Amino acid sequence: MAQVLKEDIRQRIYAAAVEEFYSKDYRNATIRAIAKRAEVPLGLVYTYYKNKQALLSAIVEPIFAMIKETMEKAENSNFHSAFENFEKIEFGMFLDLFEKRKELIILIDKSSGTEYGNAKETIINLTETHIKKSHQNKDIPVFNDFLVHIWANSLIEGMFEIIRHCTDRKSAEKMMELVARQYYYGIEGLND
After folding, report:
1. What are the E-state strand segments in the chain?
2. The CA-based dihedral angle spanning residues 180, 144, 70, 60, taken in that order and rounded to the nearest 10 degrees
3. What residues of the chain score a pLDDT lower than 50?
4. What pTM does this model have?
5. Backbone region of residue 113 per phi and psi (left: phi > 0; alpha: psi in -120 to 50; beta: other values)
6. Which secondary structure element, helix H or strand E, spans residue 60, and what is its range?
7. InterPro entries in the record, alphabetically (predicted)?
8. CB neighbours of 83 closer than 8 A, spacing ≥ 6?
9. Contact 110/21 with Cβ under 8 angstroms?
């Protein structure tokens, strides 16, 4: 019974931290406010999490790791088209991210001043590498690095905008598909 209570307390602290970081960002959130939201004594938060940074890491690291792992998997796949690659690998990741939208928003928008402060740029860089690799053996003109950066930035920012603003999964799913279709077929169309 005590173990269940401990896990319940950990989950309450975690949930309170998500809400606090989401509403205030990392810099403005405090352990005191998190404890108050979780309805636990301040010292109890430190029993479960060493400090505010450790709490942030517990929230965003699984999200960041999933993105990096999915991008690596996508980069090493051999589907017929970039859009098919997106449909089979990356689309599922974005839908999973939608389910953890507050955690993702904390990672990309609200973790300035931490080791995750450049997470969005890292994700864009991974996407750039993926774009270059997925088109290197195709009969598409060589793109300059700046253009590839613009494409990667616009795709990732578009997906993040959907996650930021869509509140129901069905709408988000349709929007993601439309943005990806426009994006991938647009790049493929450059060969015409």
Report:
1. none
2. -100
3. 1
4. 0.87
5. left
6. helix 52-75
7. Homeodomain-like_sf, HTH-type_Tx_Regulator, HTH_TetR
8. 180, 181, 184, 185, 188
9. yes
